[in-house]
Amino acid sequence: MGGKGVMMVAILCLWALSATSEAVTETEPGLMMNFYKDTCPQAEDIIREQVKLLYKRHKNTAFSWLRNIFHDCAVESCDASLLLDSTRRELGEKEHDRSFGLRNFRYIEEIKEALERECPGVVSCSDILVLSAREGIEAVGGPYIPLKTGRRDGLKSRTDMLESYLPDHNESISVVLDKFKSIGIDTPGLVALLGSHSVGRTHCVKLVHRLYPEVDPSLNPDHVPHMLHKCPDSIPDPKAVQYVRNDRGTPMVLDNNYYRNILDNKGLLLVDHQLAHDKRTRPIVKKMAKDQAYFFKEFTRAIQILSENNPLTGSKGEIRKQCNLANKNH
Q: What is an example of a GO molecular function annotated in this UniProt entry (predicted)?
């Protein structure tokens, strides 16, 4: 073959590789805004309306959706593995100790059923989880957060990884910072995400170690009687309705009051206290306590990073028929 022939073959090969690459890119676009605009144009509106209806009936659903996005997306991939039920061989993530207090998963199924009636087999449970969190945040007074979609659902639980990824409320602030950093969330992002403690409540199981056998001297003494009243037992029943509101001032509103509380030593969890007093986080806490717009800005950025943590897209994973079951178990 002459020189011109060899060159022509080489050009054709390069063209073929380029065409293949473009085809892969075209069929597997990854996350994008309005991913369902052609396949299910009403998807985000349906999720929004369902969240509003459910929130009107059950106010605490908003807190559940907000916790869901953290407990799912922070554990290696944002793929709705959190929603999977336990099987004979595998404990589901939602049954693990680190998921204590998570609930209202049935409402995710209600949203899924509404979407299946409109667009069967199109919208993933992982996108439902992320977008319901977005709507829940707005329902409790938080910012509207633009989020990309196009996630697909994982095939198995990641229960064995939970302790590696999810920080415990008793761990040092250094460990918490490192775990958030491993998924791309910096210190201001961490401080903003913990602002989620502005809403909802904490079960006595999680805070009695600060009350018994002796009261933690770092707690604001004016706040202790209320905590003791709500948590009268040193070994509370995990199934009992024994809670303390995270923020007694605005318990149903996501706002920067949390930061003022922890600066005043009224944080319920040890991580709240450390956040207010560690030299790496205290300046950010003080800034957020004074400036809610700054808090919302960093909170928005952190939620966006969290929601895009290593998603399954394109041909990876699946679109579950039912959010609590992988299709092979359906």
A: heme binding
The pair phi, psi for residue 58, each rounded to 5°, is: -140, 95
| Amino acid identity at 31 | L
DSSP state letter for 198? G
C-alpha distance from residue 35 to each of 150, 177, 199, 213, 223 (Å): 6, 32, 31, 54, 47
Annotated binding site for heme b: 197
Amino acid at 302: A
Identify the active-site residue in 71, 96, 203, 273: 71
pLDDT by residue (tens digit) across 27-73?
A: 567 899 999 999 999 999 999 999 999 888 887 777 888 889 999 99
In the predicted structure, residue 242 carries a pLDDT above the cut 80: yes
Residue reference for tokens 């509370």: 236
Q: Write out the two tokens for 30.
A: 């990854």
277 is a catalytic site residue: no
Annotated binding site for substrate: 167
DSSP state of 114: H
- Residue 235 burial by CB count (10 A; 0-12/13-18/19+): exposed, middle or buried? exposed
Chain-wide mean pLDDT for the chain? 89
Neighbours of 164 (CB within 10 A): 11
The tokens 């030593």 sit on which residue? 265
Give the chain's length. 330
* AA letter at 74: A
pLDDT score at 120: 97
pLDDT at 27: 53
**In the predicted structure, residue 12 carries a pLDDT above the cut 80:** no
- Binding positions: 72, 75, 79, 81, 93, 167, 197, 247, 250, 255
- DSSP lists the bridge partners of residue 198 as none
Return the amino acid letter for 185: I
